[in-house]
Design a protein that fits this description.
The chain is α+β, with helices and mostly antiparallel strands. It has 17 helices and 20 strands. The structure holds flavin-adenine dinucleotide.
Length: 560
């Protein structure tokens, strides 16, 4: 939806102002800190001389749109201009122009701006609007998605949405293996982070499921890389927070697709029982009774009355076997929560079947074992039968409902953490049973809790995850929306309190989709000495002038 609107808007704009280059450059906001590059008066002329087919806009509407994001938490300093590329060469030309300057200007690729803290911004510089790739100059979105049935892969433009990748692959009975929960994110955007969801325990994050990339480095060089060719650049870019290059194409491996999913939700009264079961499920090599029976394993925490009360609204419209359909479900769940001390947990899983994934009788047998062996609160199980696409794209329904009532564009002060397995119960006690329950907020949104197998993550990539001895680590997503006056401040304070709690309790967590206000935070709190040294070394190689993705606030000036 976003892409189509933008495309239409862009086509109209292109007709009237294609190649109408900057007349004026807005001065970057005076109150911002040192990482703002101040455009010189010659900047518009330089852009004018690029000689690219791309549309460049510097009007307030374009720059405001390019500096806004899903977080809606802080106002990022706007870019001086937005580049709507018609092809990757336009981006390369822009980067070469920046690089050639004695004082280079910042450039950031922007997928859909689903970041929450201005990470896709380019303060005072140029934001590259990735979705317009292929749409100007007579191209089409579908032209940048190409399936090889023989090779069992899809080539996807970095600007493509995962939902479109899914549909293109399914047209050939194929599918990628690793997903995010929400599919309306761009390929380049999630590969710059990690791309995680309930399949990652088995297949690893999306960055573990890439064969080849086309990348444009900070100096404007266009490189095709893979583990075998220019492997260091390939690894740097994956999970690289946009610091080493712009991803313009990713080759994603495909496998034969299932057609259906049994979607299971089970309520638990304690974190120990939930995490114990989750770990049994994801231990695919141990051969236990339930190990590997689910294809998707996640979990949610229902830590406040609002969430517990609204649980019924998650109810499916058609359920094959579900306590949702019982008339007194809300009262029963509330009673269970009271007995459990106010906090409930939900294991959310799926078993794929149909097509390449086996028949219905197999899935029935597996389900029987799961419902017998797992330690959920008896009587609180919901099982639904849905299409594979319906399951993967389920968050879209929620988005449309929230949009309809004006609750999609509210502030989202999200906090995502990776925690070592050995401390997850300490975290649950301190955060789910204490901090999140203190001080009522009207905030809404899920709190996720699910485990990963570390051996499915590649430590050569730039992604940062717990690498201690433990084989399992947890993802915690505190994904709340500020819906009433005062919520945002209270939620930000709670986030700070959670981070302080971890520090004081010695829980060595790292942020996923990280945000730090300055380089010291990145260096000390996120990367640590060894990973920081490698990150710096890669930055020196691929973007020494620190042109790319300054909105991440990792580098604010060219490296010495
Ligand atoms: P943007 O926000 O536009 O960009 C993010 C960063 O990547 C920026 O630094 C940008 O400069 C850089 N970048 C963007 N495109 C490129 C490119 N082509 N090449 C190089 N750098 C680039 N994440 C998960 O892992 N799992 C989930 O289940 C999940 N669910 C989400 C649900 C919602 C509703 C939202 C809003 C986000 C979710 N995310 C999830 C987070 C998501 O992965 C990140 O927001 C990610 O950045 C993708 O968003 P985007 O494509 O809009 O990228």
């Amino acid at each position: 939806m976003v892409v189509i609107n933008k495309a239409q808007e862009m086509t109209m704009a292109a007709l009237s102002v294609l190649n109408c280059l900057l007349k004026t450059v807005q001065a970057a906001r005076a109150n911002d800190d040192a990482h703002v590059w101040m455009p010189a008066s010659s900047f518009p002329d330089e852009l004018r001389d690029l000689g690219v087919a791309a549309l460049i806009r510097d009007d307030a509407e374009a720059t405001a749109l390019a500096s806004a994001d899903f977080g809606n938490v802080s106002v990022a300093p706007p870019p001086a201009a937005v580049l709507y590329p018609s092809c990757p060469a336009d981006i390369a030309a822009l980067l070469r122009a920046s690089c050639a300057r004695p004082s280079p200007f910042p450039v950031s690729a922007r997928g859909c701006g689903h970041s929450v803290r201005g990470q896709a911004g380019a303060p005072g510089g140029v934001v590259v609007d990735m979705p317009s790739l292929g749409q100007l100059g007579g191209g089409s979105t579908s032209g940048r998605l190409s399936v090889s049935v023989e090779g069992q892969y899809i080539d996807a433009g970095g600007e493509q949405l995962w939902v479109d990748v899914l549909h293109s692959a399914l047209a050939h009975g194929l599918t990628p293996r690793s997903w995010t929960d929400y599919l309306h994110l761009t390929v380049g955007g999630t590969l710059s982070n990690a791309g995680i969801s309930g399949q990652a325990f088995r297949h690893g994050p999306q960055i573990s499921n890439v064969q080849e990339l086309d990348v444009i480095t900070g100096s404007g060089e266009m490189v095709t890389c893979s583990k075998e060719k220019d492997g260091d650049l390939f690894d740097a870019v994956l999970g690289g927070l946009g610091q080493f290059g712009v991803i313009t194409r990713a080759r994603i491996p495909l496998v034969p697709a299932p057609t259906r999913a049994r979607w299971v939700r089970l309520l638990y009264t304690g974190a120990a029982a939930l995490t114990g079961d989750q770990e049994r499920l994801i231990d695919v090599e141990c051969g236990g009774t339930v190990s590997g029976l689910m294809d998707y394993v996640e979990g949610t925490v229902l830590a406040d009355k609002g969430l517990i009360g609204s649980w019924r609204s998650l109810s499916p419209s058609s359920s094959s076997s579900s306590f949702f359909s019982e008339p007194d479900v809300a009262a029963r769940v509330a009673k269970l929560a009271e007995e459990a001390g106010g906090v409930l947990y939900c294991l959310e899983g799926a078993l794929y079947y149909g097509g390449a994934a086996g028949g219905e009788s197999d899935v029935d047998k597996k389900l029987e074992v799961l419902l017998r062996e797992l330690r959920y609160a008896r009587g609180f199980a919901s099982v639904q039968d849905v299409s594979y696409v319906g399951f993967l794209d389920r968050v879209r329904d929620g988005e449309l409902k929230l949009r309809a009532v004006g609750l999609w564009d509210v502030p989202h002060p999200w906090l995502n953490l990776f925690l070592p397995r050995s401390r997850v119960l300490d975290f649950a006690a301190g955060v789910f049973h204490d901090i999140l329950r203190r001080g009522a907020t009207g905030a809404m949104g899920p709190v996720l809790l699910y485990p990963m197998n570390r051996n499915r993550w590649d430590s050569e990539t730039s992604a940062v995850f717990p690498e201690e001895e433990e084989e399992v680590f947890y993802t915690v997503g505190i994904l709340r929306s500020a819906v009433s006056d005062g919520d945002l401040g209270r939620l930000e304070e709670q986030n700070e309190e959670i981070l302080r709690f971890c520090e004081e309790a010695g829980i060595s967590c790292v942020q996923y989709l990280p945000y730090y206000a300055d380089q010291t935070g990145w260096q000390k709190k996120h990367f640590g000495p060894a990973k920081w040294a490698r990150f710096m070394e890669r930055k020196r190689k691929y973007d020494p002038k620190a042109i790319l993705s300054r909105g991440q606030r990792i580098f604010t000036a060219p490296l010495a």
